[in-house]
Amino acid sequence: MHCCTQICRVSAEWRPNNSPKLMDLLDDTVPGIGTYEDFNTIDWVREKSKDRDRHREIANKSKQSTVALLFSISDAFSGWLLMLLIGLMSGALAGGIDIAAHWMTDLKEGVCLNGFWFNHEHCCWASNETTFQERDKCPQWKSWAELMVGVSEGPGLYVVNYFMYVCWALLFAFLAVILVRAFAPYACGSGIPEIKTILSGFIIRGYLGKWTLIIKTITLVLAVSSGLSLGKEGPLVHVACCCANILCHFFTKYRRNEAKKREVLSAASAVGVSVAFGAPIGGVLFSLEEVSYYFPLKTLWRSFFAALVAAFTLRSINPFGNSRLVLFYVEFHTPWHLLELIPFVLLGIFGGLWGAFFIRANIAWCRLRKNTSLGHYPVLEVVVVTLLTALLAFPIEYTKMSSSELISELFNDCGLLDSSKLCGYTSNSGSTSGSVNATAANGLGARLAGPGLYTAMWQLALALVLKMVFTVVTFGMKVPSGLFIPSMAVGAIAGRLLGVCMEQLAIRHHERDIFRGWCSPGADCITPGLYAMVGAAACLGGVTRMTVSLVVIMFELTGGLEYIVPLMAAAMTSKWVADALGRESIYEAHIRLNGYPFLEAKEEFRHKTLATDVMRPRRGDPPVSVLTESGMTVEEVERLIADTTYSGFPVVISQQSPRLVGFVLRRDLVISLENARRHQEGVVSMSPILFTECDPPMSPSAPPAVKLRSILDLSPFTVTVHTAMEIVVDIFRKLGLRQCLVIQNGRLLGIITKKDILKHMAQMANRDPDSILFN
């Protein structure tokens, strides 16, 4: 090696100026080098190394001139500026989506005469004829039956309104699926499984593009307004990530570095949850706990800042007109009792069972859609599901209203002015009222169930079954569909039912020792709305397996510190029960269903296999395709590229001595050869390709060589054949590797890629290894 170095130095000294030029890509940067093809995984180590080099160069130049110092300051500030823009853009879009969805949901039932752009609530605000008992009725708001046939009561009113409700629902859903199919196929679904995969380093071109953002924003409003059992909260994470990806193109250091871009996308995920629930802290924890693959401390601070800006922007828009960021913000003040932890844990068990059932049923339905002719007719599927949903939802009050309004209704506690059927109580004296009767027997604020409450209970039980069935078949259709709100609605219904049962039990048996301390004079025994909130958290946790972030989001929704313990008990119980029945969350199940190369950090590898069991080539396979550091021509390398589909090639000293020199990416190799043929004079098919540091002796008549050492990774990660796969999997997870080379005494024996590891893990778990579709 020392001799070779001396030869290189001497040859550089005596080489004449007119000798054939060797192209060195280190001096002339070729456009496209260092980028990645679609459906490929980024090289995290290489991207972070590039960023460190860039920082080092900026720091060195900043000491030389004032201009360079100002550039260094602006470079450091650019990350915070980007977070500010992401927060502003995402908050504004979320506010627009909320306003439009609220208006279009009400449009299915009628229109405001004062201005068609007013929703039902805003239309009746200025009316003097509105009463507390019938606050939704005012002369300015007309149902479709009143406008079209002029009837205000009777069966004609019901039939016309029923027909118009179904027609509007079908129109909205049809427009949504047609727009998605025609302009942005990636705009369907929730987007969180794909964002998790992208944050792990996978490239999906167009998934976070401008067309996806535009179509997702429009169709999300249409899908939510159609009355399908879906929510907008999950897709808002996708919308925020689209905003972040588009804005990254205006900042060079994020545009040119895929790892830095993923730090921004992690922050954008926090922004999406922040504007969805009005929970900035919960959004940051959601990004950290649920979606992010690489989350340094710097990203934590920036995520918090971006989520804060987004929440402030949404608050400034005030989409619901109540100075709140969500429709179902509530405040509870009644304390809970220690024995109530038993029903809270029961709700946690229900949430875990629902989560496990939903994941299995939804994945089975999606697999049926994928493997049968059902998947060939996405428009028909959406229209049929919408038709069935609308037909069955309209007769029941609690399925007819939007899921957000339903959750708001279930979370709220009954007050003196409430006219809801859920507040249909009867006092012991026998008087019945739609509102809460302030007096009760024995001086207690006790409330016995009246006819209105019994009606509401069986309607809620029916709504629970319908919500569960329709959520299973709706999630995964070719329209934007979130899972947070439907899951919370299922849990809120179950919680409210249990809460009312517990309330009636405590009231009717308040003299017993177990309930004696629960009911105090002038106060309610139990808050059914609290049970609805705990049930909502339990069911959402069972489906998504969120814990810390879930509790914080629910805390930010309610503003009640005293309810942290019930929420924690329900969330943990839900996760334990759901994990006992299946380890995957709904997002991980969809990642596996779609075959994305996602290496789950939570999944433990417990098998005693070695690198030699997983590496390619296997026994009986042809030897691994390699390049030699010298001795190959342009034609031979181009033929090897054409005959294979590998993402890169190991470089060895020679075929006879396969000692590892480095690794070169296929894309870099293709771009470099094309650039050499275009710009380097005299390059032909017989031109030699060199990965060596020094130039070998060449005859004067030989064609000029193409030197590609600058695109060669001289320090690829290597393991020996005896390395345990448990260690190899940890290396891939923690360093985000694309591939790892297997050597023995310096000799190259094979290669292990991320796809090989995923296939091996699937095989060990008795799953189909060919389900991993992408490289």
TrEMBL record:
It holds the Pfam family CBS. It is a multi-pass membrane protein. Residues 615-681, 711-769 form the CBS domain. It comes from the Eukaryota. Belongs to the chloride channel (TC 2.A.49) family. SMART domains: CBS. The chain crosses the membrane at residues 66-88, 162-187, 208-230, 236-252, 264-288, 338-359, 379-398, 456-477, 483-502. One of its GO terms (cellular component) is endosome membrane. One of its GO terms (molecular function) is voltage-gated chloride channel activity. InterPro entries: CBS_dom (IPR000644), CBS_dom_sf (IPR046342), Cl-channel_core (IPR014743), ClC (IPR001807). The keyword Iron does not apply. Keywords: CBS domain, Chloride, Endosome, Ion transport, Membrane, Transmembrane, Transmembrane helix, Transport. This is Chloride channel protein. Its main location: membrane. It comes from Cyprinus carpio. It is found in: Endosome membrane; Membrane.
